Amino acid sequence: MTRRVAGQGFAFVWAAMVLFPLLWSVLSSFKSDADIFRSPWSLPSVWHWDNFSRAWNESHIGRYFFNSVIVVTGGVLLCLLLSAAVAYVLAQFEFPGSKALYYVFVGGMVFPGFLALVPLFFVVQNLGLMNSYLGLILVYATGGMSFSVFFLTAFFKTQSKDLAEAALVDGCSHWGVLFRIMLPLARPGLVSIGIFQFLGMWNEYLLPLVLNTDENRYLVTQGLANIAVTQGYHSDFSGLFAGLTISIIPVLAVYLAFHRQISAGMTAGALK
Amino acid sequence: MHHGKYRFVIGLLLIPLGLYAVFVVSPYLQAFPIAFTDWEGLSASYRYIGFDNFVTLFHDPVFWVALRHNLFLLVSLPTVIVTLSLFFSAILNYRGGIPGAKFYKVVYFFPSVLSIAVVGVLWQFIFEPRSGLLNGFLRAIGLGDLANLWLGGRDTALASIMAVVVWGGVGFYVVLFTAAMAAIPKELYEAALLDGASPLQSFFRITLPLIWNTVQVAIAFLVIGALDQFALIKVLSVGPGGPGDATQVISLYMYTNAFSYGKFGYASAIGVTLFALNMILTLLTFRLTRRERVVY
Known about the structure:
The complex is a heterodimer of chains A (about 270) and B (about 300). By secondary structure, chain A is mainly α. Chain A folds into 2 domains: about 1-50, no CATH class; about 60-270, Orthogonal Bundle (MetI-like fold). Chain A has 15 helices and no strands. Chain B has helices at about 1-35, 50-60, 60-90, 100-115, 115-125, 135-140, 155-180, 185-195, 200-210, 210-230, 230-235, 250-260, 265-290. Chain B: Pfam families: BPD_transp_1 (PF00528).
């Protein structure tokens, strides 16, 4: 019994350590600058909702958020589309070189991103895609392909070929089989990998730092980091906390709504 | 029929393969030749200089400092994160799950869904010496002497950043380990209990051996992750990389060389070295953590 209580105690302490900084930042986002410094521990004496509008408009968090949504949505959808096409072919068809092709895609997982960073910068620059949504979307989508192809190939392989063959015999085209039968059946796999890629791309920091240097195109991660760095000069701490809260709350809300699929999807990547 | 099949296969593969070749394969392949050039600045002209970049790197004191910091993270991060995660997983799974185990798992996972840059900015405030949460907390409970410069102190900067990595990392591995533990048949624990085994004994004799594969994957992930540490250090450290290279790591040094100094050849040589280290460490980790696979 005492062991159980001790266990509860430890579990609770870690939960507090995780939650406390997050709560603190949410509370601070409602305070005035003076309040943040004078009493970091108390509830706000006056609830300053204006911090949020200031962060959203003056610090451009709203625009950064919009940029992030466009790039990440585009990146995830394109990545799923490209990877599903490749994975379907690799799982269902045998042709000369199909094994080699599989390793070309899956091999990408072994290489650290830093190795490709300098050449990638010039590839994107030479294509005229620096500081563009399209450039980031293409880089994100292709960067996610290795793992997605690996995951989805395994997924498509578990699906029986009988249904596809029956449809072919009945005169359905290969495209029809893909879009009417195989992709709908693969939905759970596509959803897991989509969530996995979404979180990864939403968190990406290095690639936009290198490929996206125009302040108007900043993503949330870049924008926040930048505001924090230049904070010393503006000293609008409450506004920064509000920005922080704006970028924490929606992600946590999405997570709470889908937490089962998300933790399953993220850890599935590690267990494969 | 066959004709249609090949047209279909080519039609499906053409665009994905083309984009993958341009944005993934070609950059990786180009990285190696660039590492052997003296390419600097934005000029397009460069010469091949053989292994000169690697020789320079070998004599570059900053590189060795960075490597030492990476090695420190490489040992400390897996050790601390895996130990803590196993500890909390065992607690949450104790006797088929303590009350609130589900809630704890959801909360522990929070930092894993937050962007690293957001986590970095948040902790910048926590470590802030004057009005930050940490020093405020220490003063409030009468331990004001322990209040520190944290990120601004030469001796505390790297450890502070490491603590943030631990804070952010434990939840993910708790979810991973508890999932693996849930798959262990309950009868094994019941039998052990009948034989008079203590909870500690059941953990080391039953739980750990049976989830070892998962632990091994976790260690490999963390070892490679320790080489890839970048975003948190870029956001949190003074400089970044400071104070006085106290938090310099290989990836940051490569980034700075490429995009602040424009030394693209030298940066690529650092990238190739990082890649080689990555390969060696991955193989080494799997070799060192290999054990007989337990089947149940």
